[in-house]
Automatic annotation (TrEMBL), chain A:
Keywords: Lipoyl, Transferase
Organism superkingdom: Bacteria
Residues making up the signal peptide according to the UniProt record: none
GO cellular component terms, semicolon-separated: pyruvate dehydrogenase complex
Protein name, UniProt field: Dihydrolipoamide acetyltransferase
InterPro entries hit by this protein: 2-oxoA_DH_lipoyl-BS (IPR003016), Biotin_lipoyl (IPR000089), E2/Pdx1 (IPR045257), Single_hybrid_motif (IPR011053)
Organism lineage: Bacteria, Bacillati, Bacillota, Bacilli, Lactobacillales
Keyword Transferase tagged: yes
PANTHER family for this protein: DIHYDROLIPOAMIDE ACETYL/SUCCINYL-TRANSFERASE-RELATED, DIHYDROLIPOYLLYSINE-RESIDUE ACETYLTRANSFERASE COMPONENT OF PYRUVATE DEHYDROGENASE COMPLEX, MITOCHONDRIAL-RELATED
Any single biological process term in GO: pyruvate decarboxylation to acetyl-CoA
Native species: Secundilactobacillus pentosiphilus
Lipoyl-binding domain location: 2-77
Gene Ontology molecular function, alphabetical: transferase activity
UniProtKB/TrEMBL annotation, chain B:
InterPro entries recorded: Aldolase_TIM (IPR013785), Elp3/MiaA/NifB-like_rSAM (IPR006638), Lipoyl_synth (IPR003698), rSAM (IPR007197), rSAM_sf (IPR058240)
Record keywords, A-Z: 4Fe-4S, Cytoplasm, Iron, Iron-sulfur, Metal-binding, S-adenosyl-L-methionine, Transferase
Pathway this chain belongs to: Protein modification; protein lipoylation via endogenous pathway; protein N(6)-(lipoyl)lysine from octanoyl-[acyl-carrier-protein]: step 2/2
Cofactor note: Binds 2 [4Fe-4S] clusters per subunit. One cluster is coordinated with 3 cysteines and an exchangeable S-adenosyl-L-methionine.
Lineage: Bacteria, Bacillati, Bacillota, Bacilli, Lactobacillales
A Pfam family per the record: Radical_SAM
Chief localisation class: cytoplasm
Protein's UniProt name: Lipoyl synthase
Keyword field contains Cytoplasm: yes
């Protein structure tokens, strides 16, 4: 089954962030709690953890992209 | 001709250093956010866009901000909205006490916006909140992080009498930079607040303050501040990195390197503070529970 990963709300005051970098590549095994990617908000670099166990299927955004809360970021095969 | 780079606004912050990385577990944060919004409570974590929110909410810890969300002062370092204040919500103290219970907090931090519009400057709401927390959570230790109450001793007396375990009031920065970043607050008023509390509170109440680095302060100014604080016997000191909330705020001067935090830690401990937290992501209420435990178990 494919699960979609959407951009979480990482900062109470904004809904748009700079996408930093991927910590997992397509084909990599991911476990719940593993850092999937990094996002730059106003006050921090947030490391977003996976909420699923599975295999990273596809990355839908790239470093430097502006992403909005709720945007599709990745898919994970669980 | 000037290039774009040269004409770039000075408010453009330098790239964030790697130590500003924080982890984020969405499920845990969502759970906490849901609980807090259900109780109609504001946290300084969310209002000030704190970088530690993911970690603290993830571990079920939060700092409540009462009398908000709008502040009557517009300090240039701060991200809390400045605006017309709302009526005092007399049920807010009970909700803070209920949230403390629901979250099972063993240590709770209560702070507020500045309320220069109120006759008591907000002191009575601190008293009501402390009392409500104590009633519902007799074992929970309470830390208040107060405004300067314009230095008014009657307001300080009320909060002291309510009996928090830790009385915190932030100096924010060194003397020279204070008028550049704080609004209607002075270095001497804040020192007076800390001195008065230390002199009038029971010996068991700890007095605490915090500063931000990266505003352009020099070593000798930081050491002078430490000396000023020790001269009035302040117990705890927190030192953390200023992160510019937005382009209109006070311009970040520097990401202060880790070794300077370590040096300040050593210098502060040498001067006799009971507890010092000095690290980029330290905020005045960050891991406040661990801080109190460390001192009490000594």
């Amino acid at each position: 089954m494919i699960k979609e990963v959407h951009m979480p709300k990482l900062s109470p005051k904004s809904n748009e962030y700079f996408f930093g970098k991927w910590d997992k590549q397509p084909g990599d095994k991911v476990k719940t709690g593993d850092v999937l990617f990094e996002v730059e908000t106003e006050k921090a670099i947030s490391q977003v953890e996976s909420q699923e166990d599975g295999i990273l299927k596809a990355q839908e955004v790239a470093t430097g992209d502006t992403t909005k809360v709720g945007d599709l970021v990745a898919t994970i095969e669980v | 001709m000037k290039t774009d780079h040269q004409t770039a606004a000075p408010t453009e912050a330098p790239a964030k250093p790697s130590w500003l990385k924080v982890t984020y577990d969405q499920k845990k944060v969502d759970k906490m956010t849901h609980l807090l919004s259900g109780l109609k409570l504001n946290t300084v974590c969310a209002e000030a866009n704190c970088p530690n929110l993911g970690e603290c909410f993830g571990s079920g810890s939060a700092s409540f901000i009462i009398l908000g969300p709008n502040c009557t002062r517009a300090c240039r370092f701060c991200d809390i909205p400045h605006g017309h204040p709302k009526d005092v919500d007399l049920l807010e103290p009970l909700r803070v006490a209920q949230a403390t219970k629901k979250l099972g907090l063993t240590h709770v931090v209560v702070t507020s916006v500045d309320r220069d519009d109120l006759p008591d400057l907000g002191a009575d709401q601190f008293v009501r909140t402390i009392k409500a927390i104590k009633e519902l959570n007799p074992k929970t230790s309470i830390e208040v992080l107060t405004p300067d109450f314009q230095g008014r001793e009657d307001c300080l007396d009320k909060v002291i009498a309510a009996g928090p375990d830790v009385f915190n009031h932030n100096m924010e920065t060194v003397r020279r930079i204070t008028p550049k970043v704080r609004n209607r607050a002075t270095y001497d008023t804040s020192l007076h607040v800390l001195k008065y509390v230390k002199e009038h509170a029971p010996k068991t109440m700890y007095v605490k303050t915090g500063i931000m680095l990266g505003l352009g302060e020099k070593d000798e100014e930081v050491y002078q501040l430490m000396d000023d604080l020790r001269a009035i016997d302040v117990d705890f000191l927190t030192i953390g990195q200023y992160v510019q909330p937005g382009p209109k705020n006070y311009t970040l001067r520097e990401w202060v390197p880790m070794k300077r935090y370590q040096e300040y830690y050593k210098q502060a401990m040498k001067r006799g503070f009971k507890f010092v937290a000095s690290s980029p992501l330290v905020r005045s209420s960050y891991k406040a529970k661990e801080e109190l435990e460390a001192v009490e178990n000594k």
